[in-house]
Design brief:
With about 100 residues, the chain is mainly beta. It contains no helices and nine strands.
Length: about 100
């Protein structure tokens, strides 16, 4: 469906909302990190159908179609021990989501 323009944000130790999806697949991919020491961030995905929350460290997070009925979210925060980190990410939705 769509590949959105890259966005740059500063992540801290609290989770920050990166994307909310409504009944469509989506993925968030980290394309650049200001601190070369890290290759990923801490993601939290929430699927409201099951009310499940997954927390993991990676450079990409995705939600399938059923995880976004009626809504699903992808949040991120800085890795443990890092006060702030600047990242650039890209959102893909629908058929473009990987």
């Amino acid at each position: 469906m769509a590949v959105l323009d890259p966005v740059t944000v500063t992540l801290r130790q609290r989770f920050q909302l990166l994307h909310t999806a409504h009944i469509q697949r989506c993925s968030v991919t980290i394309t650049a990190i200001s601190n070369a020491e890290f290759d990923g961030v801490v993601f939290r995905t929430t699927a409201f159908v099951t009310r499940s929350k997954n927390v993991f460290t990676a450079n990409k997070a995705a939600l399938g179609l059923w995880a976004t009925v009626p809504v699903g979210t992808i949040e991120a925060r800085a890795p443990e021990g890092v006060a702030t980190i600047e990242v650039t990410y890209q959102v893909k939705t629908g058929a473009d989501a990987e």
